[in-house]
Design brief:
Blueprint: H1 3-6, H2 9-14, E1 20-22, H3 31-39, E2 44-47, H4 53-64, E3 71-76, H5 85-100, H6 121-130, E4 134-138, H7 144-152, E5 156-161, H8 164-173, E6 177-181, E7 187-188, H9 203-213, E8 218-221, H10 227-235, E9 240-243, H11 257-263, E10 271-274, E11 282-285, H12 288-293, H13 306-320, H14 343-365
Parallel strand pairs: 1-9, 2-3, 3-4, 4-5, 5-6, 6-8, 8-9
Antiparallel strand pairs: 7-11, 10-11
Length: 366
């Protein structure tokens, strides 16, 4: 640990000793993963955006059973989807031949498979009762009254931003820190408005822009896989780095065998942004579903997360026949640097690499 990182105000605010945040990764993270990262001095995270409120309560309690350290709970703040029966039926009809390859048929109807936190009062009540140390927001922010209620409960708040305009909204809302999500990041783009032009700003450029413009602490996120990347983010003004893809192959995650083989093999060298799987732009390893989504005859994708209902059904049908290439194999642009380790081992490796990289930067500066 460098003396600089040991004195970063954000670490004290979050109650952690290392400038490393494990990204929430709904469907990938587990209580065991979050607890291992927090026990090692970082901030472990759980993605509960796809859970019902009581399932989130159980996840929080299961994590607390494994650690006394702070950890982060992440929710999705997307605008609730407006169903469009014609668009959804056209999408299902277009996917029908893919289902047929696995002796299956598409669902008769697809629906919004989980509730946005902007209107999930039950989830808010769970947070106010359980009081996790940190709650983070993706895809936007909840109503200001919700932010104030969480702050009044003593909960620290983080929110992702993909550009300066979104970051300004985060600052004005009174959130404690900005997660600067670069275009390199795996998983869903945190864009507040998917209809708006995406400037596709890279992690380091966005981190530096936000660190120079705002007083709020900045957390760099996207394409950071090792201690050298963390050191670079800190040098650009971030007070911590959030790593997701680096933790995906950890032994404590919930990924299936196909996802694990892909991220530890050649597919990790090839990622792309796709909306076909879920209905929102997200970075995945190139697979059968992302290739399908690039076809010229692809019809308009239903809104998120309605499209995800079809995506999960297709993945389930294919997986039952041994084909994993239709899954949401989210990964950032440097995924090929991922290492299969227990989370505690990866944290130790990251700390060692960060110290070495920091010494190198100091030697260069002198």
């Amino acid at each position: 640990m460098t003396s600089r990182s040991a004195n970063l105000p954000l670490l004290k605010l979050l109650g952690i000793s290392k400038p490393i945040i494990q990204a929430p990764m709904a469907g990938v993270s587990t209580p065991a993963l979050a607890a291992a990262v927090s026990n090692a001095g970082g901030l472990g995270s759980l993605g509960v955006g796809a859970m019902k409120a009581e399932a989130a309560r159980k996840a929080i309690r299961d994590t607390r059973a494994l650690t006394d350290a702070p950890f982060n709970i992440n929710v999705f703040c997307h605008a609730p989807a407006q169903a469009d029966a014609a668009v959804e039926q056209t999408w299902l009809d277009w996917l029908r031949p893919q289902f047929a390859k696995f002796n299956a048929t598409p669902p008769d109807k697809i629906t919004e498979i989980y509730t946005s936190f902007v209107e999930d009062k039950a989830m808010l009540e769970v947070f106010l009762e359980e009081k996790p140390a940190v709650v983070s927001f993706h895809f936007g922010l909840p109503p200001q009254s919700v932010i104030e209620a969480l702050r009044a409960a003593g909960i620290r708040l983080l929110a992702s931003a993909t550009n300066l305009q979104e970051a300004q909204i985060v600052v004005d809302a009174g959130v404690d820190a900005i997660v600067a999500q670069g275009i390199e990041a795996g998983g869903h783009r945190g864009m507040f408005d998917t209809a708006a032009f995406d400037e596709s700003i890279g992690t380091f450029a966005l981190t530096r822009l936000l660190a120079c413009k705002f007083d709020l602490p900045v957390i760099a996120s996207g394409g950071i896989m090792d201690g050298a990347g963390i050191a670079a983010a800190l040098a650009l003004g971030a007070q911590a780095a959030q790593l997701g893809t680096a933790f995906v192959p950890c032994l404590e995650t919930a990924i299936d065998d196909g996802y694990r083989r892909a991220i530890l093999g050649d597919p990790a060298y090839h990622t792309t942004l796709t909306a076909a799987i879920s209905g929102r732009p997200a970075r995945s390893m190139v697979n059968r579903f992302t290739t399908l989504g690039r076809q010229a005859d692809a019809p308009p994708t239903p809104l998120y997360p309605i499209a995800y209902d079809a995506g999960k059904a297709l993945h389930g049908a294919a997986k039952a026949q041994g084909e994993f290439g239709y899954g949401a194999q989210w990964a950032g642009q440097a995924a090929a640097l991922a290492r299969e380790l227990p989370a505690a081992g990866l944290m130790a490796r990251l700390e060692q690499e960060l110290a070495e990289a920091s010494r190198g930067l100091q030697a260069f500066a002198s």
